[in-house]
Amino acid sequence: MIEVERKFLPPIGGIEKLVEGFAASTTKTNDDTYFDTADYRLTARNWWLRMRNGKFELKIAQKQEHSGFPTDVFDERETDAEIYAALKIPQTGAGLANDLAAAGFAPFAHLSTERTKYSRGEMVIDVDHVIALPTTETDFVYDLVEIEVMVATEADVTQAQEKIYAFAAERGLVTGYTPGKVLAYLIQCRPEQYNVLREHGIAP
Predict the structure, then answer these.
(1) What's the predicted TM-score (pTM) here?
(2) What is the per-residue pLDDT for 63?
């Protein structure tokens, strides 16, 4: 599946109008640890390797030559086999965590997100409250709204982008640049890593 998403700052005055007509399906806490190499091999490609609640996931950013809509489009790899293949690391039998460490991948951020998910048809709104752990090392706190539509093929991406933007305009969201939680964390806590994104034209 392909994830088409756009991030926004929460609307002034609360989210009631934003989620009107949506069903609140879940509220849960996601515990995410993000990994990269010392030379930021994944950051430079806009790839994001994380362990979410004990399970590894890899999000691979897709080029958007077919559309002028500045949404984020990611191909998600959710099995260990897919991650081994994408990262091209040896599979020794010691497990993915050990093989990643042997290949030079190490944690650079540990973010805890309280997420409330609202859904209506194919559209999902995630309302996030994010803190960095351990809290004794940083005061990073970030609130974010993410609107996403999952599609099956590249041919469906543009239509999904149009739906997200039309909905955002209808609900009065500001459509300027809003960094996601990881990029916001890098801006505040790891500016040298954020500069890698700038140097590669991935972030402003």
Answers:
(1) 0.84
(2) 66
